[in-house]
């Protein structure tokens, strides 16, 4: 029997696999874009045709790609297979994809890369292979046929080796990203096959491998970005060893890197040898030192060719002990642009600041600069050529002191001091004579005074507390007043050369003719709400009215008011005891009936029961309801004070509004108690479709509970009265 069971399991597995293989992706029908991502697929779905240009199979459980899976998708341009479990691919799986431009195989389980996979992908421009499990790229180049490749992303945490011929066949790349955190073996010359790389990113920890790669890239890469490296070993070899001019590398970025004092000194010296290097960048880096750099070695190595330095979010572990870097003056006098942002800078020594003789652009945004230290940072003769200064997002408090400091910058044209908390603004300030751009947005100033320099061409005072604008600024071309409290437009006469005005999110409510006099408005970008407020408000009111109308119509159609009224009555009744005490029972039965059946009830049933021996006392709404009392309360009280509730059912009954209330309340108070307090008398046959759907319990009770049916013959009627009297006595 175990053999039979094993055969059955194999056949069942094969059948299940065939079902999955033939199951199409539902979003692929008659469309050029086929999104089958995150659908739990174990195989590439069947039915892929030549109409499809984009196929997204990401985030599934695909383990294997077969030769025939993509055979018909000859016009495919984009194939996304990332985040699956792919461990094997048939050699000719991509053979028919000659028009494919993007292939993403990242984050799978590929233990090796085969050149045969890419042999027919002549149009491929973007290839993503990162996040797999291969340790190297093989003995030769997997990419030798990819002549149109533009971007390549490869590597993983196990990737350890790059060999000489691995990149043969690739000549030009816009972007190359190698995740080589554990890259330990690099054969020199491996990357020299690539003649030009616009941007290369490499995650690397080995200083030795980093140096070897830089030597190979001197003539090809324009921007090199190095991530996660820990520069602590001192590299003695030259980075340009045996290399000939001219070099191509222009920009070098370190991201998420860490440096020691010793290596910083050495890297500065080594980078000077790369005469083409113009820009240095350090982002999210850590400096493990106190500034004890080998100044003598740095100075003796000659002049630096770098013109732009950016330091963003650098962490200096011992910043309170950091030295003033005296002696570096000769290394910075050719620098044109300097950014030190989000790095807790609170001052620059005056002596060092004076040496930036060629600096044109200085960005200190998001630091800890305060006014009493700003005198030291911008001392007399400091930053003599500076034209643009960004001091936004610092801790400056005094606008007057800030203005006095920047007057020492005779060439200053652009000044950004936004998002400082000035609060107040003086009547008079001194500014550089050439100042043309001033950003005071988000500085909590309540008004504008003649402190604002009249030389300005661009003024940004957005996000403040301004209630008016009346400055005389004859040269002003652009004015930004967004997010203030202005009620009127600025006058046209004081700003005759204005070209652009941004005044959104204020409190404007009317324009006067005088405010609009001046030059013809050129390009204005206003929202629909700002242009047609009355129309928008009217449309909103009409829309609200229509919504209310629709709700009323739906409420009428689906008896919402009836439900609400009954719910209210039920909530009131829920506060009362479910059954009245025996002493409060006044009637043998409350009779619920339609007015159209009153002749039978009042002339036949009441006479028979109330004249019986002993007589029964019945509660009828015509006779026994309390005058002036809300009818729903009358119904509730009568049912509660009656031993039984007797329903006279007929076609008229189920169409009666008040019978519905009585019956529905009985649902809550009687039927749910699983007792016999309700007696059903069927005066005439009722079709089930005549019973309203909301009375589902009546349908259920009529199917499960015995009811008395009024017979046409006199002999049967005697039996009917006996049964009814017996039910009332029970």
UniProtKB/TrEMBL annotation:
Residues 585-728 form the TIR domain. GO terms for molecular function: transmembrane signaling receptor activity; triacyl lipopeptide binding. Disulfide bonds join 28-34, 350-379, 429-451. It is found in: Membrane. Pfam families: LRR_8, TIR. Belongs to the Toll-like receptor family. This is TLR21 protein. It comes from Phaetusa simplex (large-billed tern).
